[in-house]
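User: Can you write out an input/output pair for a complex, sequences first and structure second?

Assistant: Here is one pair. Inputs:
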Amino acid sequence: MKSGLRSEVFEKLSRIAGAISSPEVMEWKKKGGKVIGYTCSFVPEELFVAAGMLPFRIRATGSQDAGKADDYFEAANVCSLIRHTFGKILSGEYDFIDGAVIGGGCDGGRHILDNWEKSPAKIPFLERIFIPHASNELTAGYFHDQLARLKARMEEHFGIKIGDDKLRDAIRLCNEIRGLQRELYAFRISDNPPITGAETVAAIVAGSSMPKQEYRDDLKKLIGELKAVVVPEKKYTARVMIVGPGHDDASLCDIVESLGGLVVADLTCFGGKVMFGSVKEDGADPLQAIADYQVLIRPFCPKNLGAHPSINKELFAKIKEFKVGGVIGQIFLCCDTWGGEIHILGKEFRAAGVPLLRIERECTSDSTGQLQTRVQAFIETISGGAL
Amino acid sequence: MINVYSQLQMQAQKALGGLCLDPQNASSGPFVLGNGDFFIEIPAAYGCSFSDLTLTGANGTALPNAAELIDKGIEIGVESRMCNAIKVASYYLEAGLVRKPDLIITSNSCCDAMDTLGNLINGYQPWVDVPKFKMDAPHSFDEASYKYMGRQLRQAVAFMEDVFGKKMDWDRLREVCVLSNKQAQLLLEFQELKKAVPCPANPDFSRLGFAYDRWTGERVSPQITEWLEQLVSATEARVKAKQGIEGIDEKVRFLWQDLAGSWPPGLLWGRLQKELGAVCIMDYMSYGTLTPIELSSEEAMFTSFGKRFLLEDPMNRQALHTTDLFCDDILGIVKDFKCDAVVMPAHIAHRDTNSRLKIVRDMCRAKGIPCLVLGIDIWDKRHMTPDVAFDRMKTFFQSTGLI
């Protein structure tokens, strides 16, 4: 179900989210701007913004075929999100980026770097960054040191200087964007919001695929329009939350919403996780503030030992705030970390009486029919009747 | 030689099996449980027992009812393609079969599945009151990373001291490290002897020896040193006499670049030796790159602990780090141990190896090293039986002209 939203700015964000490259990115490049790709939401965009670059989250949106990536990653044993993302890299869809930073968040993900280095898809600047798997002062300090090393490598390679003032400016901009994204997200607290889950996903994903200032301005405009719009009365059959990896495309939201449900919230790598909290703006060391944010403030990833209590707290808060009627726990096949997390959450949801649909699937929309049947049954169950 | 092997095998399997499952097996001192490797010298010196639940799960896959245990692991609902050793460990945990520990130490080494087991342990409700310490193993191997890891291991000691109200006996820790260095040296000597042609010792020796040495928590025991000395001595004698493995006419030397399967070694490696003369000279669990623990200062000691943990523990070495290191090890082993071929078991659910196969294949092709990718489940012979693996390896050796 579409919200009926008529907005030029939304159409633009949706177009950007639905593809890899875009005219906006090409325009940035034409003006001499650099684009730096990155994987994993724990790679801080602030560093790239401070370098005057456009941070571009590498993703697999729209992929139906991992292509030659399956030569590098064994298809039955490595997550489809990784394979399809690498397939896009090999197919040349990311040729417009000037460099990439691969986050070592998960086993498959970090091997993108090794395979990229050995593949025909050459890239002049390719760096890895290890994402700590535990949250404490020592690990945040280690992450700071890695960021400092990465910053030095960027300065050397691109012939730039990333000063503390630029880092602080970047922190402020990214914090402002996170605040706006939370504002956009909160529309769905309402019973009859002006924007759906699928539309929100698009508007969030666009944020890591276009110039940041332009995105901030577009988001402000969109929020203004949404506040002003008169929403026709609609009755959604179920209010659903999605939890799990990926979520760079809205196919699962589309299924829920095509069946009369509404995806009101999520805790996913491309969704709800990216906008949580803020980086401290007045810290003496802005790089440490960024490291603290990623390691101590925002540990919502099951790769992080001990992250579960914070994931649990965040989810149950959202369930209450967004009046969630049921949760879809999505696991991509071969994603060990989310596989374990959804299992732990399942027990807690059961104890709390929160309905959970656990699905294992590939990141593509190949099996939409099967998925639709399961989601339909789930929505019927939680809405108390046949659709 | 046979007696040494039998003793070592019996002792290793007794020590490796089921420590944390058996509530009666409460050795002296507190019981520390981990999801994977810790630095065994620390609990050994502190006077507590340590058990690795992943290893317990892996041992479960060697039991007669392995298939049932794996299926029970699947039924509890973790990711369906997760490593079966972790599934069995998860089942043991959630079925309440694991003895309640006094302290839990988890880390992300060496893979996402073990990380997940760590989260299952940390989130296990009946153990909510058990103190927990979490370590972060970085995917890098430089001095800064060793120091970082060393600092965390030092913090783990402080945490143990706080929890148990007893200080570490630093002299004892140094004594244990001296013993550990001696045992590491013996393992390396044994490994060196295996370079001889024909290979003097059955492949299982080094695997069991290494596992025993690293994991049992009995490092303080002079028995291990004695047995390793006997193993080295007996193997030296065979090398001097130019004797290969008893009853084997060695024709092919291969590297098995993964863990050995949990089925009895005779089912595959033993049969390959006997019927084809194909000897597994090295597998990655047996490949030791140990450097001595530095004892000059506390900081130096913990930094060398960090190095051993991150780079010299076989599981961490092959999984946590770059494909370049993985490939360098393959080439180094092939050259030093005069291997004729590389077999990549490509254990299903081993995300790291399955993300490197093309690079390994390309490298082997460029170097003229025959390479076979099996795609086997080392924990579940229902996926590919040892007989099928035997046939595939036989065909491979035949087709590449090695036999």
